[in-house]
Request: fold
Amino acid sequence: MGQDPGQERAQQLTADGEPKTAAELRGEIEEVRRELGDTAAELAAKTDVKARASDKAEELKQRARENPAPIAAAAGAFVLTLLASRLVSRRRTGT
Reply:
């Protein structure tokens, strides 16, 4: 049968069979609090959809400034597709 959770925690609080000092325990508690705060901040950032979308848009803008060729190619392809579809629709309607 497993140990009681309190006993397991008590064993974790001892180092080499010697109890930890109050200062050591306070230090560990402070470290855990910092880690929890960091984790909470990371989770909050992941759930902020508006901020993530804004960050992604800024990243894409920066990439476009650094290398505009793919954007220009996509824009050209869009214009050609638009012109081709108008041409086809004019031929179908006879205008």
